[in-house]
Fold:
Amino acid sequence: MRKKIVAGNWKCNTNLQEGIELAKSVNELVAKKAADDVVVVLGVPFTHLTNVVESVNTERIGVAAQNCAAEADGAFTGEVSASMVKSTGATYVILGHSERREYYGETSEVLNKKLALALENGLTPIYCCGEPLEVREADVQNDYVKKQLEETIFKLPESDFRKLVIAYEPIWAIGTGKTATAGQAQEIHEFIRSIIAEKFGKEVAEETSILYGGSAKPGNAKELFGNKDVDGGLIGGAALKAEDFLGIINGF
Ligand code: 13P
Structure:
């Protein structure tokens, strides 16, 4: 059975001390109150990785980087490689977030390099896709997302594809307070699963966790996660408050 996953994406928030406190609070709440069958992941800034790994029970909570370099190593000032991420004890990496595509010019070509290095280093990629508002308004979001997947993760061999998690994040719903309706989320998640089935077969499609991201909160998690093709969430703002994050984890 595919996994239910709730992953926090802290983005560029919290200094190290605040991050450690937040991780400890999440760790305590998850240990006491979270449903056992939900995989919990914290996507934290690079500077926090080692400390967050040390601050949580990593048997229960996975730690993710929010990016990794497109090169294995070498003269790339300021970059952090997949093997460096791995060496901290983190086991996931968020790749292709719309903010990275938009503000840092990440193309499918760059993402393919990052995906390969993440997988080579045994990290689980949380691969993000999703359309901007004008695409949704033109009602061509399925074509847009299909192209994103075809240019990247659909090029992977099946054995690698099986290792990743997909996060569908409509850009118009990120940080805007505007959430996709349960119906909108289900419709596109079902579409994504159907194209995975066409590409890799039904069994692979049924095993792939597809998370929803975009203004998810404790108040709407139940409605979103109640859909048969929504397997959890990638959570921005609400992941910065331990109680809210727990509320989402317990939203299934
Ligand atoms: P918000 O939950 O703040 O809308 O962010 C979603 C997101 O981008 C997670 O990666």
